[in-house]
Amino acid sequence: MAEIMFWEAVQRAHDEEMANDPLVYCMGEDIGVAGGTYKATKGLYDKYGPERVIDTPISENGFTGLGIGSSFLGCRPIIEIMSVNFAWLAMDQLFNTAAKVHYMSGGQLMAPVVVRSPGGTAHQLGAQHSARMEKVFMGIAGLRVVTPSNPRQAYGLLKSAVRCNDPVFINEHEMMYNMKGEVPDAEYFMPLEGSEISRGGKDVTLFGYNISVYWCQQAAEILSRNHNIDAEVIDLYSLSPLDREGIKRSVSKTHRAVIVEEAEPAVGVGAEIMAIINEECFYELDAPPMRVSAENVPIPYNHNLERAAIPDIQNVVDAVLKMFGRS
Amino acid sequence: MDSDLKKKLLREMLFARRFEERCYEAYVERKIGGFLHLYSGEEACAMGVIEAAQAGHDYVITSYRDHVHAIKCGMDPKVVMAELYAKETGCCKGLGGSMHIFGVENRFMGGYALVGGPFPLAAGIAKGIKMKGGDEICICFLGDAANNQGTFHESLNMAKIWNLPVLYVCENNLYGIGTRIDRSTAVVDQYKRVSGYNIPSEQVDGQDVEIVYDAAQKAIEHVRSGKGPYFLELMTYRYRGHSMSDSNAYREKEEERMWSKRDPIITLLDRLIEAGEITKDEYKAVDAKILAEIENEVIRFAEESPEPSMDLLNKYVLTENDSYASGGSS
Ligand SMILES: Cc1ncc(C[n+]2csc(CCOP(=O)(O)OP(=O)(O)O)c2C)c(N)n1
Ligand SMILES: [Mg+2]
Hints:
The complex is a heterodimer. Chain A is of the alpha/beta class. Chain A has 2 domains: 2-183, Thiamin diphosphate (ThDP)-binding fold, Pyr/PP domains (Rossmann fold); 196-323, Rossmann fold, CATH 3.40.50.920. Chain A has helices at 6-20, 44-48, 60-72, 84-87, 91-98, 101-104, 134-137, 151-163, 212-227, 244-254, 269-281, 303-309, 313-323, and strands at 2-5, 24-28, 53-55, 76-80, 114-119, 144-146, 168-173, 180-183, 196-199, 204-208, 231-235, 238-240, 257-260, 290-292. In chain A, the strands form 3 sheets. Chain A has a 7-stranded mixed β-sheet, with helices on both faces. A 5-stranded mixed β-sheet of chain A has the order 9-11-10-13-14, sandwiched between helices. The longest helix of chain A has 16 residues, at 212-227. The mean pLDDT of chain A is 97. Chain B has a single domain (3-322), classed as Thiamin diphosphate (ThDP)-binding fold, Pyr/PP domains (Rossmann fold, 3-Layer(aba) Sandwich). The mean pLDDT of chain B is 97. Chain B has a 6-stranded parallel β-sheet with strand order 2-1-3-4-8-7, sandwiched between helices. A two-stranded antiparallel ribbon of chain B has the order 5-6. Chain B is globular. Chains A and B meet through helix 12 of A and loops of B. Magnesium ion binds next to strand 5 of chain B.
């Protein structure tokens, strides 16, 4: 088991899948000759050539639609959209076509495309470069949404996404590409559905995904060390479909739930998980579930305001303490 | 172009260059954050075009590479720098940043981060001008690679059929980040792409501010006289990387050398010296004055300004006290 960086894990999955199937290709802005903004396709242009590692024009809706069209014939494009903020432009093809074509063709067509894109707030990139869009994607029937929190998941989820016959949106994070983690040396396909227990605990469940898993893990350490609260951390790497069973299992054990999301609260991951808890295990609860979310604002440029707009570890700790009546 | 105007443009281009290069330093010192896209090398484009327009009267809109356009529209360089420093005295109070300079008082309608976004906005501003019956025009500056967005084609078409007073200026610096234009674009000469919309267009040297100025005068005259949109392509080059996180590794050193010989400031300076309209020493004195102004006024103002108050976080999400929103107007 080697320790590699997140971007290396994504690159390795590309490389293996392209070697395995000549109909797998990748495209996006500056992914070829330049190797990708976050190096996720580094070296592939030299290895597979310009027919399969394609530098696109700045035409997000166009090249996403082109990828979807090619998938009708069995190609398996891996489309990189440089930032989720630019994925807004491709939503027409993703939502109106990729998500619906299998259904509206009565099962005749499939759209096995993978769209990868990093989102999240990074360092002062401003309102138009700080979107967190997972909640929008996960609300669309016909689309799978996964969001890796570590290199192993980044590798295993991309591998499975390429082989899966459904369109898959992979929500990455701008701040996580240099994060290190262990990835199996052998080929590894991670299921696209489900969740992982990233830390076992008995007193409260912290639900996180992507970067918020880290906030949950670190909050759990503080809660255990300083407050004698044993938190479980559930990593919801699949946002659509959400793991109803996994959510129910954990809440039935701890009887308390805090959902931690980097996005604004409205119509979000937290809201959805609360609804699932309500539907699946309401009577297991010892306290109303809480969510820790971003402020309901566009992200400001100023550093202090930016930090204030998005949640941090302390916000998670505070929420749990409040739930336990200790603040 | 008369001698005074040439000297003024020389001074302004030099100011723009020094401003941008000082931003570079401030970024390295971590005084400026986020993405920073510099305009060094392209000064003649914004300067020549906006000089030919009525700055502060005509509307200007552009991309993230926006500081110089904002200043040329009449914005105070101090409030632009303070915005880059994310200070309360910045033009957007520290909420916008480098990619989002706004100066509505000066009719600088903003810098936008999404490639191709301003094309339809410019057409819309022109629509607004027309509906309100003004004699202004809207000038939209965007890069070459932006023309591969659908919005380019959609906007040209609408601007033409509705005869809107908009001037599209393409700053063709041959690259969209690291991708050279011939690798991303079927027709390299951008002005030719416009002919499909029956809009007059022209391509000129964007490194010679006099040529830019003359071409812009002609273009602006066309638009202002009610004949509809116009497209002006300026051939130019950016000296620095696409943004501070880009090293320019994809460009040939020879190409960079070739373009540096056609520097817009040096080109004009040499011409003025040759004509005996300025001496080297006079130029050096101007430069020294600019450097001092940037250091002692612009940078100092930004440095000494306060951080924005935390109350700002929620302040401009929606407009304040709207009686129709709250129901108080019935
Ligand atoms: C919709 C969208 N797609 C991609 C990007 C990333 N991006 C920012 S600038 C740029 C290149 C633009 O090149 P060009 O239009 O020629 O302008 P230049 O930067 O050369 O002035 C790209 C791809 C973006 N900001 N917005
Ligand atoms: Mg360009």
